[in-house]
Amino acid sequence: MSRLFGSVRARATLAATLVVAVALVAAGAAVLLSLRSNLLGEAGTQAERSARDVATELAVGTPYADLSLDVDDRPVQVVDEDGTLVAASDDLERITGTGVETVEPRPAVSPDGTGDADDGDDDDDAGEPLEAGEIGERTTVSDGSATIDGDTEDYRFAAVPVKTEDRGRLTVYAGAPLSAEHGAVNTALTVMLIGFPVLLAVVGWVTWLVTRRALRPVEGIRREMAAITASEDLARRVPVPGTHDEVARLASTTNETLAALQTSVERQRRFVADASHELRSPIASLRTQLEVAAAHPELLDLDGAVEDTVRLQHLAADLLLLARLDAGERPADARVDLAALAREEAGGRAGVSVREDTGVAGGVTVAGSRGQLGRVLANLLDNAQRHARSAVEVSLRRDGDLAVVGVADDGEGVPEADRERIFERFVRLDAARSRDDGGAGLGLAIARDVAVRHRGTLTVHDAPAGGALFELRLPAA
C-alpha cells in the first residue's frame, strides 16, 4: 500500500479525486440550499396568496361561515385581536407554527349572526395601522405542521392582517404544503449520493490513465538510466519525447549530464593513463641507475639520479595539485600583489624583464592564493623560457576592473589551431623533443585550471616580438 501511494501517478490521481470531491460537495450543497430556498419561497408565495384571498373576503364583510377556507385542502385560521380562533378549515385536527394551536373556532356571535359588534373606532395599537376594509401589506411567514383529515404534513404559513368594519382587526393564517420542497430536495440529494461516487470513480479512472500516459516517458528515462547504471556504458542516452514539455526538457538535461559525465570519466581515464606513462619513465630510469650502482658502484650517475628524482618530485607535485583542483579545492581569499609576485618570480631568471604600466605603479591586488598564483606565473615563465630565442617579458596593466599579466617570448609562437589544445593535460606540441627538455605537459593545464578557480582566464595570442603572448586576467580586488 505504501509503495502504491508512494508513486506520483497514485498521488496525482488521489489529489485530483479529492479536489473534485470537495468541488462536488461544495456545488451540491449550494444547489441544495438554492433549491430549498426557491421552493420555500414558492410555498410562502402560495400561502400568502391563499391568506390574502380569505382576507379580501373578510374585508368586504363576508360572514365566517361563508369564507372559502377549504380550497385545496390547505389549513386556514382566522384569529381576532384577542388571539381567539374565530374561523378555521374543516377537518383541521391539529396545527403548529401559527401561534394559535386551537382548531375549533369560538366566535362571539351577535344577534344578526355576524359576530361581535364593533364600532370600528378603537385605535389599532398593535402591528401595522389599518383602516376599516383595508388589508395589511406586511406578511409574516413561519414554518409548522398541520393534520387535516388524518394526514399530517409540514407547511409554510403566511399571516396577513385585515381590518373589518364590524369585527375589528383580524389575522388570517394560511398554509402551503412543503411536501414538494421535501420531495425535490430528497430527490436531488439521492441523485447526488448516487451520482457523486460514480463521477469521482470516473475522474479517478481518467486521471489514472492520463497520468500513466504522461509519465510513460519518465518511466522510459528511468529504465534507460537503470540500464546505463548496470552496464556502466556512459555512451548511451535516454529517449527524448517529442512533446516539448517538462519531461522532454528533463530527458535533454539528463542526456547533457550523461555527456558531461562521460567526458569527465574519459578525461579521468586519460589522466590516469598519461600519469602512469609519465611516471613510468623517471621511475624506470631511477631504478636502472640504482641497480647499476648496486652492481657497479663506480658507474653510479649521481647527477642523473638526482635529476630524475627531482623530475619525479615535480611531476608528483603537479599531479597532486591537479587532483586537488579537480576535487573543487577553493583558493584562499588572501590579498595578493601581482606586481610584487611577478617581480619575485622573474627575479634570478636570465633574459626575463618586468614592465609595469603607470596605472599599476602602486601595485595591483587580486584575491586568491599566493602560492597557486605564483605557480601560474612560474609555469608561464618556464614555458616562455623553454621556447624563447633570447628574451622574455612580463607586463602588468589594468583593463577596467581586471588585472592583466602578460608573459611574452620571442620564439616561434603557437599555431592558431593549437592555442586551446596546449592547455590540455600531457600535451606537448613538439613530439620530437625529449621529455627532459619539454616537461610532462602539465604546466599550462595547471595554470589555466588555477586561473579559472580564481574567476579569471588564461589565453594565448601572438606577441609583438613574433612569439607567444600568454595573458592572465583576474578580477582586481
Tell me about this structure.
With 477 residues, the chain is an alpha+beta fold. The protein folds into three domains: 1-233, no CATH class; 246-326, Signal transduction histidine kinase, dimerisation/phosphotransfer (DHp) domain (Helix Hairpins, Orthogonal Bundle); 334-475, Histidine kinase-like ATPase, C-terminal domain (Heat Shock Protein 90, 2-Layer Sandwich), CATH 3.30.565.10. Helices cover 47% and strands 19% of the residues. The chain contains nine helices and 13 strands. It has helices spanning 2-5, 8-59, 179-231, 246-295, 302-326, 338-346, 370-387, 435-438, 443-453, and strands at residues 76-80, 85-88, 92-96, 140-148, 151-164, 168-177, 334-337, 352-356, 365-368, 392-399, 402-409, 457-462, 468-475. It has a six-stranded antiparallel sheet with strand order 2-1-6-5-4-3. A hairpin with a 2-residue loop joins strand 10 and strand 11. Helix 7 runs antiparallel to helix 9. It is rod-shaped and about 155 Å long. The two termini are 60 Å apart. Mean pLDDT is 84; it is low at 109-125 and 431-436.
H-E order: HHEEEEEEHHHEHEEHEEHHEE
Give helix % range: 40-55%
- The overall pLDDT, averaged over residues, is 84
Number of strands: 13
Largest sheet: 6 strands, antiparallel
Question: What's this, in brief?
Answer:
The protein is built from nine helices and 13 strands. By secondary structure, it is of the alpha+beta class.
How do the strands and helices of this protein lay out in sequence?
Blueprint: H1 2-5, H2 8-59, E1 76-80, E2 85-88, E3 92-96, E4 140-148, E5 151-164, E6 168-177, H3 179-231, H4 246-295, H5 302-326, E7 334-337, H6 338-346, E8 352-356, E9 365-368, H7 370-387, E10 392-399, E11 402-409, H8 435-438, H9 443-453, E12 457-462, E13 468-475
Parallel strand pairs: 8-10
Antiparallel strand pairs: 1-2, 1-6, 3-4, 4-5, 5-6, 7-9, 10-11, 11-13, 12-13
Helix pairs in contact: 2-3, 4-5, 5-9, 6-7, 7-9
